[in-house]
Amino acid sequence: MRDKFKFILIISLLIVSTGIISTNGSINTDKFISETNLNTDKFISETNLNTDLIQSDTYTPVPEEKTLYVFFARNDAEYNDLLSLNPDTVYSNLRAVVLEQYPSDIELFETIMPNRVFPYSSYKIATIDEYGTASSGIVLNNGPDAGILDVQRMWDAGYNGANTVVAIFDNGVNTAHPGLEGQVIETYNINNYNGQTYPVCQDHGTPVAGTVAATGKQADGTTDPTLRGMAYGAKLISIGIGCHPDGYLWGDLLGGFDYIISKNATIDVVNTSWGGGNAAIWVPVLQKLADVNIILAGSSGNDGELFTSGGPGASVDAVSVGAIGYDLRLTDFSSGGPVFGSQYKPDVVAPGANVITTLNDGTYGPISGTSFSSPLTAGALATLISALKADGIKYNVGLLKAAIMRTASTIGISELTQGKGIVQTYKAYDMIKNAALGSDGMPMIVEMAPRLGNLPISYFSTIFTDITLDLSLTVIASHMGDVSISVTGNLADILTIDSAQLNASRQSQILTMKVDTTGIATGTYTGNVEVSLGSDKVSASYTFEVKTKKASILMDTGHTTWDSSGADVIGGSNTGAFIQAAFDKGIWVEMYDGEITSAKLNNYDAFWMPDPMGIDFSDPSDPDAIRANPLLDSEITAIVDYVKNGGSFFTDFNGLLYNEDAKVNVGTNPAEMNRLMSNFGIALETTAVVGSGPLIGTLNNFTSPVGSSKYLSHYGNFLTVSGDAKAIATQGGGITTAIYDVPGEGRVMATSTNFWMDNSGMAGDYAAGTDDRNFAKNTLDWLISSTQVKFISSSVVGTTIKGSFQVLENGVAVSTAPTIEVLDTDFINATTITPTSAGNGIWEFTYEASSDGEHILQVVAGYEYARWDLTVDTNAPSVKALDSNPNPSVLDKSSSLFLYFEVKDEVSTLYQTSFSFKMNDNEITSEDDLEHTYKEDEDKLIVWLHEPLLGEALDHIYELTIIVIDEFENKVEFIFYFAFSEVDFPISADVTPSSEIEESPFNILFGLMALVVVPIYLRKRK
What we know:
Layout: H1 4-14, H2 29-36, H3 40-47, H4 51-54, E1 67-72, H5 76-83, E2 89-91, E3 96-101, H6 103-112, E4 117-119, E5 125-128, E6 132-133, H7 143-148, H8 152-156, E7 165-170, E8 184-189, E9 192-193, E10 196-197, H9 205-213, E11 235-240, E12 242-243, E13 249-250, H10 253-262, E14 269-272, E15 274-275, H11 283-291, E16 295-299, E17 319-324, E18 348-351, E19 355-358, E20 364-368, H12 370-391, H13 397-406, H14 415-418, H15 425-434, E21 446-449, E22 462-464, E23 468-477, E24 483-487, E25 495-497, E26 508-516, E27 523-533, E28 536-547, E29 551-556, H16 576-584, E30 587-592, H17 598-601, E31 606-610, E32 615-616, E33 625-626, H18 633-644, E34 648-652, E35 656-659, E36 664-667, H19 670-677, E37 682-684, E38 689-690, E39 695-699, E40 711-714, E41 719-721, E42 725-731, E43 734-741, E44 747-751, H20 759-762, H21 772-784, E45 787-797, E46 800-809, E47 812-813, E48 820-822, E49 831-833, E50 836-839, E51 842-848, E52 853-861, E53 864-872, E54 878-881, E55 889-890, E56 896-904, E57 915-919, E58 922-923, E59 930-935, ...
Parallel strand pairs: 7-11, 7-14, 8-11, 14-16, 16-17, 17-18, 22-28, 29-30, 29-31, 31-34, 34-44, 35-38, 55-62
Antiparallel strand pairs: 1-3, 1-4, 2-3, 5-13, 5-15, 6-20, 9-10, 12-13, 19-20, 21-23, 23-26, 24-27, 25-26, 27-28, 32-33, 35-36, 37-41, 39-40, 39-42, 42-43, 43-44, 45-46, 46-47, 46-51, 48-49, 48-52, 50-51, 52-53, 53-63, 54-56, 56-60, 57-58, 57-61, 59-60, 61-62
Helix pairs in contact: 9-12, 12-15, 13-15
């Protein structure tokens, strides 16, 4: 807890309206104790309460708007304390209340109520997980579902869901559908939120209901058994959410769950074919469901990527269901895990492409999405429960979930996409029937994830010496209090699991597997993690290759919210490929969400803040609310001191953007971020730009850590620089990447985009020609390099360069003379020169550029270099007529005329604007007279002459003058003679007209030298 005293003040704010605290800050102690049942001795001792300071008149409440938050009580005593605070809304069955609080204070509440305080707005909007209907005219048969999910054998044994009730928590059910007549025994609508009501439209909930319990009855009165739901003998309760015009589900989602728990004597299974919020917000809700023996099946989502599984099904107590096709392969839309807490999701898969079910128009038809994989599984669970009830077998949520995961049939892909595989209902039933019984008479079954040989992140198979790593292990059991865990082989030397983490009251939970290689030798470590419950046992094999660590980076997740979505974590979509590149280089990346202190930073070579200071765009009425933890003044001081003392700092963000759809600002809060970045001469633009992209940014080729890279993917706002900061990448005139690199200090890089370093950018998926991956690798080397090569000065006199630079190693001046390379270019042969020492690691050199061409001088030390670039060009371009129209020519008269010329410049680049024209000494300025195109790759100039310029004279000699001026002001005038009849030309056909060359004083372009450094291996790719 960062500031215990401040927390007491927050408690004071929380209850000031009750009269416990007066407006001047003094405490009515008797009322405080009586209304909150506070154990004052314990409260003071555990928070170091300074009562004198609290009672003073110096405290002023935070001047900000209050926001509604949901508080989930841990027990009845805590719930009663929350009730005493006059909540806005009470959910008695969830043991939760809604209180209005200051957003800046919530972090401190969370320190004593971890994972039990959430913004109320998180539960406002949900999105349905329907992928789309099948093409018209497709006729399919739903019969395969029962066979694929091993439900048919349950039906054959006489179990069909009878004596069970499934809650369809969706946008309503059309009870008039022939296949659902008599199946829905109750409807409870929760389509109002904060005074706003939207209709229950039934178009999604009706097909969801049919996959669970449709009887197969059709409009003509006949019944088709192949159209039945997986638990056609079950009954349904419809929990109806409203349909927002924008396509969302709208309603009191917590109210719906509160009602379901109130019906726990009736409801056995809940289905949620929708998503909303990260997995963390649903954990306390699902724990309450498990406590009353209600199991939830939820759709995994239709985003089709890892880290996108969400909704209530993503909670550890729920069953998350992905989608397969009837070919038993994962669909391209099925979302994968991991989710909050790095737990594996989904848990299982079921058919979800072209599933035949009840449609809202009273017919049956195909529909797709994990929305329908989930209720197929909910129906399978209801049928399983009906069998257990009929057989008198005791069960709980842990037993059900463990059994269907243990018996699922793998389709041979990652657990992060298939879970344990396809649900096999009868096999689960058979396992339960044959399991040993616990002392309470309930069968004992245990499951774990991962179990199929997958590490959470594949590249964790290689780790490094002297690091610690926390991996997640999900354990599901019917009797958690009797579970034991062991580690075998020499794996036990580096991996431990503290069994004290096991909570006997929970049936599903996430444990930490701690990997610690401190003092461990390099080599291979292999063994099994074994989880046992009585005679039931499961295990997973792990192998780690431990290598020597080269460097380490601390990754901050305490000031971003993208970690909760799985984007900014090890393996995440924003950061995974970049971190893997670091691992490949022997650089360890460690996530950290605590307070940033000097003591913490000093253990690492570099510090990284991905996507910090995000803006909350979930509430359109409050577009500028900071949702990420703000930086403390002490944290800014720690980061600045860290850089001053040689540590490197890297941050990436999109800057301030305007979302046209939501009509709000999104991205990064520039005011908050600039409190830190201003210390390094870098600032975020404060005017939002309209988001578009991805775009292509241009890199400064002679600055670090660019190397030979030229183009970078970009999406975001822009930066400004001052002082020692320098821009190294731009897009459309705006700065997108800047660095701060001062001799004797650490390095700083800020980039107003993460597109170049996210998984798609690193894979080269955004735009052709970008060099995102090379730039990312280069950045990693630059951040951790102990060697610094610093540009000091450069001057050019004529064709002579004089320069100086400094070389430091771990901040200490290098006394051995480095070599300066003159690189091999088109006209310059490679050579070397030796600089002279000016003391303190400073070196000076003089170089004479004696010939035309690009002269690149480079000093290399370790992975870094500094560059000087001087281009000398004393020759004008050359022009000659091509054979198609030799000089001079007699041409056919027409309304327009095409002429072709070869134009070359050995050193300079020519552009469309390098050319001008005269006809018979008169300058041509109108495109109505002449147009031209220059093809640089072919050295070809095409001139198009129009009728107004040519006139009518047939015996007239035309003199077309082509004037070319290169970028060094070298000039040539080439005269082309032509006529439309035989005439006496002033020159013969084999004579080239004279050219007039005009030179600038030196005809030299001096490219700005490298102010910073670049890893050498990129240079070698040139």
